[in-house]
Structure prediction request, 557 residues.
Amino acid sequence: MALADPARRELKAVRWGLLAAALVASPVVAGVVYSAAAATGLAGFGPHGFSTDRLTRVLGEPAVWESLVWTIRTASLATLLASALAVLVAMTFRRSGRVDKLARTLAVLPLPVPHLVAATTAVLLLAQSGLLSRLGFAAGWLAGPADMPPLVYDRAGLGMVLTLAWKELPFLALVATTLLATRGAALEETARGLGAGPWDTFRLVTWPFLWRGLLPPVVAVLAFAAGSYEAAAMLAPSDPLALPLLTLERYTDPDLARRGDAFVLVLVGLMLTGAAVGLHEWVRYRTTELRG
Amino acid sequence: MSGVLSAGRIAGLLGLGLSALLPMVLLAIWSVGDRWFYPALWPSRLTAESWRTLLSGEGRLWAAGATSMLLAAGTGAIACIVALPVGRALARLDGWRGHLGAAMTFLPVAAPPVALATGLQFSFLSLGLGGRPIGVLLAHAVPAVAYVSLYFTGVFTGFDTRVEEEARSLGASAGQTFRFITLPLLRRPLAEGFALGFLISWAQMPLTLLIGGGAVRTLPIEVFAFVEAGQDRIAATGALVLLVPALVALAAARLAARGTEVAAL
Prediction:
């Protein structure tokens, strides 16, 4: 009895823990199940009966693939830019002086700014008649709004990349500075004590340490950026359409037969999320459980 | 402190200052700018009209702000009530099971809101929750519960349960232990969990749009509509109002962190 008791408690803890996680995940699971049924004709709009026609047709559309590539490319560029800036900020302002503290505070300040507010500001700033364009005109570089390189609704998605990167930077900078302040400092001191120069310390100790610590939040932020609706709705071009916009466009199509297409796109979106979440947790598992 | 202000550091500081403060300054100017046509760098007239309308309690922004406030407070409360036991249960998982639990809990946080909303809309409609505030509230609770659960998992990972066991062994009932021991210990995490849930609902747009079906007008929905309509002044006013709870929460978190010594910043 005395031996069985801790084991039983352990089993109970595992059961309750996984049940709790399943409860939290259940809306997503329900969404996946319903979307899979609707994408294969078992539920949703139109006539019923299992068929993979819709799946093959939607996944065979070039517009869908362009949308997917554009969305992933834009989110990746923004995340890359934000990660590089986060590392730069963390390395430049890592000391305990007042200037460093002020810089770190400023870097984290936009953290809770809603995506919608960031996108609204970006429109007012970057549009062809926005403030940047007016400054260009005042400086004599631009002859009018048409001269301003398009940063809003542009195919390259520059305005969107900048806005998403701005929105991601505070979180990544916070993680990077915390990493450096906690374990990073001790590791570097050890390396220097063993005779490593500043460059070798950065290359062999600081950078690998930072990059491993930053990878999980970077994957998370990438998933957020790819799924963001507000920034895409306000800044992204109409061709190619970002995946969240394409999903919504199909879902609200006046042609009821096309509405079901949205569920194929929902499945694609949720499956990509699942992959990102799996990767995120796997990296965390590798770095925390299997360390050393 | 040699080299504290090298050129690179000054440029970095200026860049960060500009990036953090310029958006707010711009929105403030835009919210009072009247007849501000290209290529003017400054509005030809200043007016507090949009702020007066807002503060007089009339107009769409005020109504939307009130709706958003109620939804966000409700979401924060639901998130805390559900996430507290969930986070506690999750924190007891270890090894790969802990990571599996965390991955499952992370799903609603990472799922694209449009995909989540489209996937959920049918069940919400068939339950009669579509186009109603209660439906939007429950939809907002989906990512909020997940977020706050992850937060509470962290809280309970470092939680010493011996003090509860002590109380139980001294004869306290489970309810008394929760009421007099656990709850007071968790006062600050609960406040932070509530703030987190509040902010998730406050900034939420796609779930409101799809589950609310245009009938539930929250502040983000109205701000978006004003931007689309080219009504920059009202849009900027609404955007600034959207910033207020976020900044209050950040300031509160920093004040609280100053009290303890683990301030990471």
Notes: Chain A touches chain B through 99 residues (CB under 8 Å). Chain A has a mean pLDDT of 89.
